[in-house]
């Protein structure tokens, strides 16, 4: 009874926290300009994408360096569903999640026997080869890609409700729902099973856990979430093409997961904001100190690398876990 009561209190606190975040987002969307609304939508997209990596790597122990490819699968699925079947926006997102989950299940089944650098290399190869694969099918639009147009916001929202604000609302709502769902599944028996497999596969197997099935399920769930992030990213760019999902995107998401703390969802917003803020900071620094276009191009990667190294050395489990460990002392 005590455990159930504590769980109910925790769920209540989480619901209040999510409601407060939604309220803050609503207030911000009425204050910020178009560019900040676009950045806010991008942050929300990264929240969903990084959460999918944390679920896969932080909780089930499977390393992925090619999550950008899974985002691409979701984006292409949503765009094809809209273009060929004229599905409404919500169903396009559902198609993206289902299609990417199925793709992830196949990939997870093939990679279930792999671990460590072998699994990371397999997912990396997928991210490298995806642009070439996309160029082979006319239905995917080649280098130019295909469009994913979510349309203008409802007229009932008023003439001042812009499209970027519409993106901001949709992406944020999707991020809040995704985080709520991910937190609940990680607290369920599935999450406990994944943590057991990550901690000690032999002990987990001796306790009756099917290791292969558990890994495939984790890969499937993570892929579905990544597919949703891909559809959201396609929404903000209004385009689905190989250039939107380069190899650099996979590395950026992996870096964002490390900055967030790959073992906890608590810091996911930190990594997401960092990925959006770093290019702007780099541009300001380059304009102020050099004015060189090459410096502005290279500086974001340098800042990301420096932050990654500092995080690994100073807070390997992430800043949130670092703060928690200090409070517990």
- In what range is the share of β-strand residues? under 5%
Straight-line distance between termini? 30 Å
Give helix and strand order, one letter per element, not per position.
Answer: HHHHHHHHHHHHH
Main beta-sheet strand count, sense and barrel state: none
Coarse structural class: mainly alpha
Mean pLDDT: 86
> Using DSSP, what is the number of strands?
0
What general form does the structure show? globular
Count of runs of 4 or more consecutive helical residues = 13
Radius of gyration: 20 Å
Q: Can you tell me the residue ranges where pLDDT is under 50 for at least 5 consecutive residues?
A: 1-6
The helicity comes to over 70%
Subcellular location: Cell membrane
Membrane topology: Multi-pass membrane protein
GO molecular function, one term: branched-chain amino acid transmembrane transporter activity
Keywords: Cell membrane, Membrane, Transmembrane, Transmembrane helix
Architecture overview:
The structure is a single chain. With 329 residues, this protein is mainly α. It has a domain at 32-247. It contains 13 helices and no strands. Helix 3 (67-85) crosses helix 9 and helix 4 runs antiparallel to helix 9 (211-237). The chain is globular, with a radius of gyration of 20 Å. The two termini are 30 Å apart. The chain crosses the membrane at residues 15-32, 38-56, 63-81, 87-112, 124-146, 166-186, 216-237, 298-316. Keywords: Cell membrane, Membrane, Transmembrane, Transmembrane helix. InterPro entries: ABC_transp_permease (IPR001851), LivM-like (IPR043428).
């Amino acid at each position: 009874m005590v455990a159930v009561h504590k769980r109910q209190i925790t769920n209540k606190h989480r619901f209040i926290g999510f409601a407060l975040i939604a309220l803050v987002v609503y207030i911000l969307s009425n204050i910020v300009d178009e560019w900040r609304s676009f950045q806010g939508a991008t942050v929300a997209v990264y929240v969903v994408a990084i959460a999918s990596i944390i679920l896969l790597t932080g909780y089930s122990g499977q390393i992925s360096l090619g999550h950008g490819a899974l985002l691409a699968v979701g984006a292409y699925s949503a765009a094809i569903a809209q273009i060929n079947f004229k599905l409404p926006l919500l169903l396009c997102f559902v198609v993206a999640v289902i299609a990417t989950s199925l793709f992830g299940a196949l990939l997870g089944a093939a990679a279930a026997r792999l671990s460590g650098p072998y699994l990371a290399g397999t997912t990396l190869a997928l991210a490298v080869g995806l642009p070439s694969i996309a160029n082979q099918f006319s239905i995917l639009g080649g280098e130019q890609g295909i469009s994913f147009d979510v349309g203008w916001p409802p007229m009932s929202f008023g003439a001042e409700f812009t499209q970027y604000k519409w993106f901001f609302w949709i992406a944020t709502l999707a991020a809040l729902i995704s985080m709520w769902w991910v937190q609940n599944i990680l607290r369920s028996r599935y999450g406990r099973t994944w943590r057991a497999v990550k901690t000690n596969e032999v002990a987990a197997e001796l306790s009756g856990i099917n290791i292969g099935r558990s890994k495939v399920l984790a890969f499937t769930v993570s892929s579905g979430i990544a597919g949703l992030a891909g559809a959201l990213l396609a929404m903000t760019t209004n385009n689905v093409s190989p250039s939107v999902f380069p190899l650099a995107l996979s590395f950026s998401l992996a870096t964002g997961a490390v900055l967030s703390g790959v073992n906890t969802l608590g810091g996911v917003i930190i990594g997401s904001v960092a990925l959006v803020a770093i290019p702007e900071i780099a541009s300001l620094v380059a304009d102020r100190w050099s004015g060189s276009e090459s410096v502005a191009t290279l500086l974001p990667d340098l800042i990301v690398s420096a932050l990654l190294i500092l995080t690994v050395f100073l807070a390997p489990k992430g800043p949130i876990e670092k703060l928690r460990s200090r409070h517990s002392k």
